Amino acid sequence: MDKRNYYVSVQSKTIMQDQGDAAYELEIEATPEEIIKLKELFEDVEYAEELTFSRAHFPGIPYHHDKENDAYDIYLKNVYQTLYSLGTDETKKHIQTMNVLD
């Protein structure tokens, strides 16, 4: 299938076909199947965010000693890895500067 450009906001977990629809952070080139996979990854991040909500009410637990935070970090890293692999050159450069990938 042919790839087309999409505009992605990780913060709002949105994937848009038209650049002017809303604010976005990254541009990618993907097939419809790759977009479905990315949407599933965003759903994983959303699920992990919900799990971390209750933990936020206990500030005495260090971030790195919490399995819910670990899951959130893994899911978010998967999103950025996918965005990197689908990203335009500019997107790849930006993700590299973020130091979120190994």
Commentary on this structure:
The chain is α+β, with helices and mostly antiparallel strands and 102 residues long. The chain has one domain. Helix content is 53%, strand content 14%. The chain is built from three helices and three strands. It has helices spanning 32-55, 67-86, 89-98; strands at 4-9, 14-16, 26-30. It has a three-stranded antiparallel β-sheet with strand order 2-1-3. Strand 1 (4-9) and strand 2 form a beta hairpin. The two termini are 30 Å apart. 11% of the residues are buried. The mean pLDDT is 90. It comes from Paenibacillus tyrfis. This is Hydrolase.
Characteristic key phrases:
102 residues; alpha+beta; 53% helix; single chain; 3 helices; elongated
Helix content: 40-55%
End-to-end gap: 30 Å
Mean pLDDT: 90
Strand order of the largest sheet: 2-1-3
Please state the overall shape, judged from the principal axes of the Cα atoms.
elongated
User: What is the tally of beta strands?
Assistant: 3
Poorly predicted runs:
none
**Helix count, DSSP H or I runs of 4 or more residues:** 3
Task: Please compute the radius of gyration using only Cα atoms.
Answer: 15 Å
SSE topology string:
EEEHHH
Number of domains: 1
Biggest sheet record: 3 strands, antiparallel
Secondary structural class: alpha+beta
Strand content: 5-15%
